[in-house]
Amino acid sequence: MARARRAGAADFLLARVAEDMLDRLASVKRAFRTVLDLGAPGPHLAAALSALPHRPFVVRAAASARAGEAGVAVVADEEAQPFAAGAFDLCVCALALQSVNDLPGVMAQVRRSLKPDGLFLAALVGGRSLNELRQAFAEAESELAGGASPRVAPFVDLRDLGALLQRAGFALPVTDVDSLTVRYADPLALMRDLRAMGATNALTLRARAPLRREVLARAVEIYMRRFGDADGRVRATFEIVWLSGWAPDPGQPKPLAPGSAKMRLADALKAIKTGDKGEPSDHGQN
């Protein structure tokens, strides 16, 4: 990633996530005073956070954090966070968690570093991202090499993240997904962008032999045939998975205790059924 940044990394995804993250934070009626930007592969997010109206104190922790950028730079690994318990009101993480080895462990460390009722907000590449590229390579290698090597890393599924947040001790967990389709002149342009993002294949179980030229050519052919548009360009899907959770605090909303309801569900359903019987609905009427 550091080499990609020096070469001029393609940062459109990070810029999009930084903008969306600020929009999500704007809906939270709170002024966060101490903020941790954990692992973002660029200074975009820290710069945007530092410019918020309440001027929070921002700590940017990343493997290649550098002095002179927005926020206080701390060289740190997401899986070995050096921060004291209860140090931050807010922790944000943009496009970094999809590459960690121990995601539950990272979440637990974030939970520890937050003050009570502190917020964790993260975005990571997940779901069906680059599914087109994965399919094209798998088909090409199956045809020409007798088997497929993992060329595109698997991404976390949305359904797993809520459980991971709860396992890490977060309250009020929320997850959702934002799908983005990017069009390229050809699959090779997509691959150049991925390399410029520092998003080349990092899997330990990948094939070590160089990719054969005929396999690459066949993968490009399959990609353009299956995922090409009428104007000759091709589509690439990026899914951004969002997750948020709060460090527990006694003042947070809590579900009612079992048996505390004042009306039985059966009685409520019976009342609705009786009220609707024989009466026309006004839904859609002028």
Describe the fold and architecture.
It is a single chain. The chain has 286 residues and is of the alpha/beta class. The chain has a domain of 189 residues: Vaccinia Virus protein VP39 (Rossmann fold), CATH 3.40.50. Helix content is 35%, strand content 22%. The chain has nine helices and seven strands. Strands 3-2-1-4-5-7-6 form a seven-stranded mixed sheet, with helices on both faces. 29% of the residues are buried. The C terminus is likely disordered.
Strand order, sheet with most strands: 3-2-1-4-5-7-6
Radius of gyration: 23 Å
CATH fold-level name of the domain at 2-127 and 156-186 and 240-271: Rossmann fold
Q: Which percent bin holds the helix content?
A: 25-40%
Task: Offer a concise description of the structure.
With 286 residues, the protein is of the alpha/beta class.
List keywords for this structure.
seven-stranded mixed β-sheet, alpha/beta, 7 strands, disordered C terminus, Rossmann fold, 286 residues
Helices and strands in order, then pairings?
Layout lengths: L1 H6 L4 H15 L7 E5 L5 H7 L6 E6 L9 E4 L12 E7 L8 H11 E13 L4 H14 L13 H10 L3 E14 L2 H10 L16 H15 L6 E13 L18 H12 L10
Parallel strand pairs: 1-2, 1-4, 2-3, 4-5
Antiparallel strand pairs: 5-7, 6-7
Helix pairs in contact: 2-3, 5-8
